[in-house]
Specification:
Blueprint (H helix, E strand, L loop, with lengths): L4 E5 L3 H13 L3 E5 L2 H7 L6 E5 L7 H9 L9 E5 L4 H9 L4 E4 L4 H21 L5 E3 L2 E4 L4 E4 L2 E3 L3 H12 L7 H8 L8 H14 L7 E4 L3 E4 L2
Helix pairs in contact: 6-8
Length: about 230
């Protein structure tokens, strides 16, 4: 079995070195880069996960994430952001850009390794669970094979969080999910976000799916469901 490959991208060499050392001890194949441009020049090939610093000279981690998520070859690459920022807005921005988890500095190396394992396991589980058959409701179609969404034949760009939430609701039409259930299903374990986060993402998703927005129904006091 091939080792899973992890890229560490951080402008602090000491952080790169300690993360590479500990990840290699866990059996992962690793490489490190001191800037986003250096990593882009190398290419991402068969990389399985990125540990990506946000605040770097030149392109920031958020800017690199935007580039990767806009490319069909790397849009599904799991990303764990590592940064000194720890406000809720920064965390939400990271998730909106398709991040899978968020670790703040200073961090415990054991915690980072544990989160790497969790994200890789979750990514593998999602790949196994997802059928190649698209999810659909009339002209709203989610192609789970390449993780694209279209509305009446027109492509719609959802964030990773919005996409996963739409898939969950479409797979479970008529089932009401409370905000706490959605947080548990969609957001990584241990990440602290509020119920407002769910509402914000639902609102954004509704705007993007046009005439099907009304299919995502709010059950006052209970949560949300997709009405077939």
């Amino acid at each position: 079995m091939n080792k899973q490959k992890i890229f560490v991208i951080d402008d602090e060499r000491d952080i790169c070195d300690i993360l590479v050392y500990n990840l290699q001890r866990e059996g992962y194949q690793t490489a490190s880069f001191l800037s986003a441009d250096e990593a882009l020049q190398h290419g991402f090939g068969d990389v399985d996960l990125l540990l990506l610093d946000v605040m770097m000279p030149g392109k920031s981690g958020f800017e690199l994430a935007k580039i990767l998520k806009a490319d069909t070859a790397t849009r599904n690459l799991p990303i764990i952001f590592i940064t000194a920022k720890d406000s809720e807005d920064d965390t939400l921005q990271g998730f909106d850009l398709g991040g899978d988890d968020y670790v703040t500095k200073p961090f415990s190396v054991k915690e980072v390794v544990a989160r790497v394992k969790a994200v890789l396991q979750r990514s593998s589980k999602l790949s196994e669970e997802e059928s190649s058959e698209p999810l659909s409701h009339e002209g709203l179609i989610v192609n789970v094979a390449d993780k694209t969404v279209s509305v009446d034949g027109k492509s719609v760009a959802l964030t990773k969080t919005e996409y996963e939430m739409l898939c969950l609701l479409l797979r479970n039409k008529g089932k009401v999910f409370s905000r706490s259930q959605l947080l548990k299903e969609i957001w990584p374990e241990g990440v602290i976000v509020t119920d407002r986060t769910v509402d914000v993402n639902i609102t954004r998703m509704r705007k993007k799916i046009g005439r099907y927005a009304s299919s995502i129904v709010t059950r006052q006091g209970f949560g949300y469901y997709f009405e077939a």
